[in-house]
UniProtKB/TrEMBL annotation:
This is Alkanesulfonate monooxygenase. Gene3D superfamilies: Luciferase-like domain (3.20.20.30). Its EC number is 1.14.14.5. PANTHER family: ALKANESULFONATE MONOOXYGENASE, BLL6451 PROTEIN. It comes from Nonomuraea angiospora. One of its GO terms (molecular function) is alkanesulfonate monooxygenase activity. SUPFAM superfamilies: Bacterial luciferase-like. Residues 8-210 form the Luciferase-like domain.
Amino acid sequence: MTHPATARFHVVLPTRSAAAPELPAFVTDVRPALTDPAGRSAVAADLAGLAGALVPFDPGGQESLAVAANVLRRTRHLRVVAGFHAAAATPVYAAKLSASLQRFAAGRLGWRLAVDLDPAAARAQGDFLTGPDRQARAGEFLTVAKGVWHDGPFDFKGDFYEVAAGGFGLPLSASPFPEVQLSGTSPEALALSRRHADVHVFAEGDDLDALVPELPGLRYGVHLTSLDHVLDHVAEYARRGVSEFFVPAEDVYHLGEHLKEQALAG
């Protein structure tokens, strides 16, 4: 039986900077550059007491781990998850970069691995792997990243990665490994989550009654595409065991000052 879960809200941060509206030619533009919308939204979410923020993987946007590093620097309590593609770097490099960030951010960094990319977007990133091999590679990626996070020697030989006598020493190995968030509804995606995820994130409309029993022992999240009727959605999902709610960042004030407290009270 699934029990009601306490709601924790996470904002999905923008990864692109909108261009400022054009001014007439006779007006001197002294407006500050809109270069850090993610940082501003994250600071607002931190002050509002929200649980976290997601910097999604965006093939056409800014690099998520770099944005996450800036957001971690600008906030004190917010947990920040960076979404990235397994082909973006080797697991050893991603782990070392993240271990370094964890030291500066008191262990607040998490990972959202983007596995089921649109094939055209994947090829544009230089990745031509398709089908279930993507989940197999993601599994090896996480196995290697977790393996080298601790003292070595760590050895691994798989279909996609090979490591000989790897492993971090102190101080890199002292920080916690990033919380791992995964998604997807295919049998391969569910199997990957069972092996490696801390949180499995669903989309609105996914059949949670069928999928949640396939993922015992995990926390569950869902992306809400709008704040309209959000309290009704939160109550409905919480009854089915969902505790993590990912919402758009357009109205952090309204979410923090009103909806969060009502959801927690309900």
